[in-house]
Amino acid sequence: MSNNAALNFVKKNTMIIALVAVIILFSVTTSGKILLPQNINNLISQNGYVFVLATGMLLCILTGGNIDLSVGSVVCFTGGIGAILMSRGVPMIAAVLVMLAVGLAVGMFQGFWIAWISVPPFIATLAGMYAFRGLSNVVLGGYSVGINNTAFLRVFGGGAECYIPDFLHGSSLNLTCMAVGIITAALFVILSLRGHAVRNKKGIGSGNALGNMAKLVVICALIVWITYKLAQYKGIPSVLVWIALILLLYGYITGNTAIGRYFYAVGGNEKATRLSGVNTKLVYFIAYANMGLLAGFAGILAVARGGHAEPTYGQGYEMDAIAACFIGGASAYGGVGKITGVIIGAALMGVINQGMSIMGISANYQSAVKGIVLLVAVLVDVLSKKEKA
Amino acid sequence: MAKILLEMKNITKTFPGVKALDNVNLKVEEGEIHALVGENGAGKSTLMNVLSGIYPYGTYEGDIIYNGETCKFNTIKDSEGKGIVIIHQELALVPEMSIGENMYLGNERGSKSRIDWDTTYVEADKYLKMVGLSESSKVLVKEIGTGKQQLVEIAKALAKNAKLLILDEPTSSLNEEDSKALLDLMLGFKKQGMTMIIITHKLNEVSYVADKITVVRDGSTIETIDNAGHNIDEDRIIKGMVGREITNRFPKRENVKIGEINMEVSGWTVHHPLYPERVVVDNVSMNVRKGEVVGIYGLMGAGRTELAMSIFGQSYGILTAGSLKINGQEVKLKKTPTDAIKHKIAYVTEDRKGNGLVLSQSIKVNTSLANLDSLASKTVIDKDKEYLVAEDYREKLKIKTPSVEQLVGNLSGGNQQKVLLAKWMFTEPDILILDEPTRGIDVGAKYEIYCIINDLAAAGKSVIMISSELPEVLAMSDRIYIMNAAKIVGEMKASEATQENIMAAILKSGRGD
Question: How far does Cα B93 stand from its chain's mean position?
Fold first, then answer.
């Protein structure tokens, strides 16, 4: 029986185990360099866009394995518009709002065809991929456009000063960062324990108490460890704040709201969902409109990090987002997948990129390895399902 | 005594955690029709999968002796090579391909580099004639009805030189006429010396066609009954299947208090969504009272499901005429199920996997899906309340599962049907339309579903029960409508209805198609 339980544990947490294994592997091959504070900081800053895009992509994939191929182009398009606006002296807030609005409008445009005209998502977004890549070129006039709005760069994470300032003025350690980490962990513990207490009171079992406790401890330790590492460098990168906000928000939406539930239901059985009185077309529309909005946001992060916009930005971003979802356990048929999976998938890809970069392996091999990881991840998923049947 | 063609000896097959077959023995004589009966999950299909090599040699224990030699099949090809051909319950035809292409799929005529289409179609036509089909083998499969598709499956099996034909629930999607034709075809093959194994739920079919009957329960063979006289004792078989005496297949209705008319449709006419010139529901008028169970009996394709779904927010077809009154008030429902649910109508589909349940989600999620609003304030779901609701229905409807977090896809058919009922009961409807509520579920679960229906009626709900099982309609209903070829062709009180006068009403109305 305990043998079975262990097997179950491995099956349920395959990708977490893989992530840990990969980190250990790279710690050895890079003689610990991958765990240096600066590298952990870079891992987060460089992959901000993957977390944001994969979150949006997850909702599309949930509705039935549908993907959005246009996001890379949309990132470039919205980023380009923002760069042009700011280079002409438009204030940051206005520029950001315009970029988000453009992203949302693009998403709604594509969502309209997909939801109400029944254009297959693959084709509708393939069209968008070409169209918005071209329009990005038009907007930027084919040139790279620099951004010198420092407020924008600081808030969205470009350059050297894009960190939350240390209000507590620690000497070698960024105390603000540490404090945030500890408070977050404490809040997490309090909320979880309260949840358990409430459920116990109502007579709802909350599962394996020991397992829950272990999970709580691991997650808190992870939060504190990451903030400790970041505190040793320059503190919390501003992009981390945005990533955390988005992941928390969408984790909540998918787990606790009616609309979140409908993404799963539509992907699991569209007809049954429609006959349950749910407007399924609206669900598709929202998935793609939201994807556009998040692509717009990723556009903001991308140009802020680069400090400029250029017509080739965002190429292949859609594939990174899709891969993160599938590695994170989303089903290619829809209806299954979680935000926590997205976090793990995106992190795994980031760690692999970073680890190989530190080792000095060429980008070509990195791509090949990513491909293999994706295949293996999906393989594990498929095989474990086959066993059940 | 005739020669034993097939003997399966002490077959044991285990899946992780489950013993699906436990020391099963089966003997089939040459030239007989052998019926395998048993409840869902009893192990009939597993046994046939062992025989046909779907579970290869080595994954089970025991011996298969066919035609005097011990067989070690590794793939379906191996067993088919010996002439053992299985026809599965779900039709395995490609709709967009022709009949001929389907028949030789994976078994193509001609050489490796070129398919010989002339031979393919000539041979296919020959086998089609043998099963009594006059269609050309060049017709696309999607253009013929389900009944004929089943015959194509048989022709396909014959094309593989079948000596032992296994039919897994061959009539489950056929109407009575097509079923009868199929069974007669089997008897015809028997005369020509073919050996057949038929797996079925329907005891009348078993009685009609089988020479021997083997009862399977919980992975073991209970007994083999000789049916040479074709006059078996159904109670004996049912007892063997469920392991206890079934004194009453239908629970008694208690507290029958029939009130006022709750819902009434008149002049209801619906056209086919894709071929608007086809009328699928023709000028139907009917009503249901509070606390009443109204049965709608009709064969498949009579327009029953179409009628029900068109009432349920026009979720099927184009409504061209007719009015709907609820509680005496005429209402015009918008073209969406949402509006129907608001007016306290629930439609429990006949197709629980296709139209009813999200198999990849938990019992809890399925239970709450049609009425999430009642659990959510400003779209945030109260998940604790949701859990308690699901738990409540699990107890009330006796859904057998360790937890409501269990995925619905892992449940048995009977339990899935109960989850589907729970989902619609949770919308607190006044009018429930149950479309084939007991299709494909075993005797025990059926009884429990009947109890639920009776409870609903006793609580003052109006229940419309659509069914193609006559005994069920007769035993459960207060009043019966008979539907044929898109029309209501008869209405009678349950006390006056008999199998004979219901069938007579259908025959008198003439057969439309």
Answer: 18
Contacts of A273 in chain B (CB under 8 A): 358, 369
Q: Could you say which DSSP state residue A311 is in?
A: T
B166, B191, B171: which is closest to B183 by C-alpha? Answer: B171
DSSP percent split of chain B into helix, strand, coil, nearest 5 = 35, 30, 40
CB A324 within 8 Å of CB A71 = no
pLDDT tens track for B463-512: 999 988 888 888 899 999 999 888 899 999 988 888 888 878 877 775 44
User: At residue A304, what is the residue type?
Assistant: A
Task: Nearest chain A residue to B383 by CA: give it.
Answer: A256
Contact B358 A202 (CB under 8 A): no
The Cα of A335 is separated from the nearest Cα of chain B by a number of Å equal to 7
Q: Label residue A360 left, alpha or beta by phi (over 0 means left) and psi (-120 to 50 means alpha).
A: left
Query: What gap in Å lies between CA A124 and CA A60, rounded to an integer?
Result: 13
Q: Select from A204, A271, A276 the Cβ nearest to the Cβ of B387.
A: A204
The CA distance from B134 to B151, in Å, is 11
How is residue B371 annotated by DSSP?
G
Tell me which DSSP letter residue B405 carries. Answer: T
ipTM score assigned to the predicted complex = 0.79
- Kindly tell me the burial class for residue B382, based on how many C-beta atoms sit within 10 Å of its own C-beta (0-12, 13-18, 19 or more): middle
Considering Cα of B162, then B163, then B169, then B172, what sign does the dihedral take?
positive
Residue B461 clears pLDDT 70, i.e. is over it: yes
Tell me the C-alpha distance between A364 and A367, whole Å: 5
Interface with B, mutate which of A1, A12, A261 (most B CBs under 10 A): A261
Q: Could you give phi then psi for residue B467, rounded to 5 degrees? A: -155, 150
| B315 touches A at CB < 8 Å | yes
Say if residues B481 and B488 touch (Cβ distance below 8 Å). yes
Q: Which of B355, B379, B391 sits opposite A272 (nearest CB)?
A: B355
Q: Which residue of B314, B369, B385, B389 is the best one to mutate when testing the A interface, meaning the one whose CB has the most A CBs within 10 A?
A: B369
* C-beta separation of A348 from A374 below 8 A: no
The 10s digit of each residue's pLDDT in A290-342 is 999 999 999 999 999 888 899 988 998 999 999 999 999 898 888 889 999 99
**What is the strand order of the sheet B195-199 is part of?**
B84-87, B164-168, B195-199, B33-37, B212-217, B220-226
Give the C-alpha separation, B293 to B167, whole Å. Answer: 36
Residue whose structure tokens are 């980023």: A79
CA distance A46 to A69: 21
Distance from CA of A268 to the nearest CA of B (A): 5
Do the chains contact at A336 and B372, CB–CB below 8 Å? no
Contacts of A274 in chain B (CB under 8 A): 315, 337
Nearest CA in chain B to A277: B338
What backbone phi and psi angles, to 5 degrees, belong to B61? -105, 155
Residue of A nearest to B391 (CA): A204
> pTM for this one?
0.80
Rounded CA separation B497/B487 (Å)? 19
Among residues B37, B35, B36, B27, the alpha carbon closest in space to that of B1 is found at B27
Smallest Cα–Cα separation from A191: which of A210, A219, A150, A162? A219
Helix, coil or strand: residue A369: helix
Chain A residues closer than 8 Å to B336 by CB? 277, 279
The pairing of beta strand B376-377 with beta strand B318-326: unpaired
Burial of B58 (0-12, 13-18, 19+ CB in 10 A): exposed
**CATH code of the region A34-162+237-388:** 1.10.3470
Distance from the Cα of B378 to chain A's closest Cα (Å) equals 9
Give the phi and the psi of residue A116 in degrees, each rounded to 5: -100, -25
A residues 10-39 near B, CB within 8 Å?
none
